Amino acid sequence: GPTLWLGSRGARTPCHQDAYGVNLVAQLAGQKRWVFFPPADAPHLGLSRLPFEDASTFTALDPLAEPLPASSQPLEVVLGPLELLFVPRHWIHAVESVSSWTLSINQWFSHPLDPRERVNEAATRLIASPLLEKLPPQCLWWLNPNEELFDLNRNIDNLWESLLECNKVPSGATKERIQAAFIHAATHPEVTRSIVERMLKCLEEDPARGTLRHHQQHQQQDPPLRSRSRSRARSPRKSAETESQPGPGRETIAA
């Protein structure tokens, strides 16, 4: 169902790309600044799955505070009371409350390509899960506080269910066959070479990626008073809730 957002001046949603659906936002009170980028701008913004959150890909660049690449094509709007905003599928966006307080409501709508996107997300979670276990203190931010890690069996079940949803499971296939196929694909020489090349490129482009500086870019919005993870609104598998005390620059979510 719809989600109600209550925020104070300076509350931010870090720049990110949502995996699923389209979004309709109604501003009820106050003003919010939205900065958008078309999906084609993704290479210019430094996409990253750190911190890891289901169905959210963040950007290394903070368009609310940093100069934008000349090659990007941003769109900016300040949404006022009783105005509606449509967020197209896969458009990258960041949001900031620019009045003393803001109140808005949004509703996610499914998209025909969501089932295939769920396969991609299941594969991403399967790869990332073992790399996000038992993190040292300085790396705890790599995992969104509301995010739940799956063990291997649950990850395979998740992948299996996603493949079933988009009719990609061959007749007679078993979960063991799906797991074996994933291992073959993930360890194929072309895939491992691509991963290493991407890793080295990330290290060259942004030496601070994965460090405290990059972490601080995603800490501009404090934890919500009482919220369901943003990804839960898009995926019924999410169930985590968090609580904290309200304060300046915070946004409360009440579903």
Question: Keyphrases for this structure?
Answer:
single chain, alpha+beta, 5-stranded antiparallel β-sheet, about 25% helix, globular
Rounded Rg: 19 Å
Record field, number of beta strands: 13
Strand arrangement, major sheet: 5-6-2-9-4-7
The residue fraction in helices comes out at 25-40%
Largest sheet: 6 strands, antiparallel
Poorly predicted spans: 222-248
Distance between the termini: 7 Å
Strand composition percent = 25-35%
Shape: globular
Q: List the helices and strands in order.
A: EEEEHEEEEEEHHHHHEEE
Task: Give an account of the 3D structure.
By secondary structure, the protein is an alpha+beta fold. It has six helices and 13 strands. The strands form three sheets. The protein has a six-stranded antiparallel β-sheet with strand order 5-6-2-9-4-7. Helix 2 runs antiparallel to helix 3. The termini are close together. About 11% of the residues have low confidence.
Summarize the structure.
The chain is α+β, with helices and mostly antiparallel strands. It has helices at residues 42-45, 114-128, 152-165, 175-186, 189-205, 212-216; strands at residues 3-8, 12-18, 22-29, 32-37, 47-53, 56-59, 75-79, 83-87, 92-97, 101-109, 226-228, 241-243, 251-254.
